[in-house]
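User: Can you model how BES sits in this protein?
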Amino acid sequence: MRIRAETTSPIKKRTSVLCAFCFEDANLAIGLDKLNKKIDQTISQSIKEMNGEKGKISIIHSHKEISSDRILIAGLGKKNKLTSDVIRDVTGIITKKIHELKIKEFSIIVPERIPIESDLVISSIVEGANLSLYEFDLFKKEKSANKEPDLMLLTSDKNAQKIIKNYITISDAVRFTRDVANLPPNECPPAKLGEIAKKIANQNKMKCIVFSKNEIKSKGLGGVVAVGQGSKNEPRFIILEYRNGSKEQKPILLVGKAVTFDTGGISLKPGEKMDEMKFDKCGGCTVLGVMKAISELKLSINVVAIIPSVENMPSGDAFRPGDIIKLFNGKTAEILNTDAEGRLILADGLAYGIKHYQPSSVMDFATLTGACIVALGTNVAGIVSNNTKLASKIKTASAKTSEEVWELPINDDYMDMVKSKVADIKNIGIGRAAGTITAAAFLANSVGNVPWVHFDIAGTAWIQPSTKNKSYNSHGATGFGVRLVVNYLMNQR
Ligand code: BES
Ligand code: MG
Ligand code: ZN
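Assistant: Here's the modeled complex, given as structure tokens:
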């Protein structure tokens, strides 16, 4: 979507639709008063009727009383409940309306003198507009014929153009993540993810290495080998290196689970909703989106991404409950449920990345446990960390992007829950107790003392029946985490 900034005053702006926000119980639209008597009256009448309720919209034709053809007033709800996410959401509602009306361009008066910093207001408007029109129509003959409208932001903020450019890049990366995550499993085996990673690496001057099945075996990535061995679609171990910081600076490591389809393997999942397990690659897709965004933003940092990718299938060659395998971290793992496969490939990704790149910190992303949905639902991701300082920075970024997270505890008692009688560790905990944390405890065996935050995005990576409706999300993958991590990385030097 094309978005630009302008300092033109609203009265003079020639546009198809001039949009302004207003609060509940207020009698004025923000930045839209004293236009001319007749139109002022019509606006205040219309505001009275819609009363500024969150997400409500009212459109008035200006009949040439002012330069714009129409005025659109959008309610933000109660002033004391305003957050940047309300602006993001309501902007999405406006944009969808404009698109539906087949209007080619519109303008939004950026609200000023409200209790949110100007750059966050602008970035939220950009994200709301650009994400709300996302649709996954790759496999449809009939695509939406309406072109995305152009948007003009009327603002006095001198940095507006720069902010717009950055947040178009970021929200385009979210759209890219959704596009990859939404691919059906027959069209997206691990090899395909490897190709996609190579493509974004070439476009943005990153180094990309993709290990084949044989290389994965010879490097000792035993978790990836075991989970991948049941499928005809061979596993891949994808590494992306982005280096634009100083040479001495240790990289930040990102690891993402990319199970292109999770049947559960020999511990087969029930049939109901099994199709949704095409989204079990979402952690890896989030990491790909982050790498695309930071390389396009040219951030002055060093980041390494690792995406272990497999298809978890039952077959005569599949790994089984009872197997004992050796992970890259040197530990043996007893397999008690082949459906707890994500932790096996992540354990290898984390250990490999830490050994070869000595990162200053590590973050991993995975649709790891159904237990996370039981604990937190589908609007909040679980995080588990060994470092309060890093976790607190993540929470700050999360508040900014409204991709909510909630920290769960980890300690030696949880570590004990994944100890095995016959191997060093086992791949499930004890019954259903603390399923999200025991999965993280399994991973902690690969991490040691490196500052680490684990994201369990099982509930937030795609739209589920209990997902709260947001105009900037649509059916399928959400791209959860991309905006959060990029915002965190933008504040790292
Ligand atoms: N990919 C699933 C987790 C999942 C399930 C995410 C449903 C989103 C929705 C993961 O591989 C898995 O199957 N985990 C098991 C672990 C259990 C066997 C310890 C689970 O959550 O049931
Ligand atoms: Mg599974
Ligand atoms: Zn899985």
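A couple of observations from the model: The mean pLDDT is 97. The chain has two domains: 3-155, 171-490.
User: Helpful, thanks.
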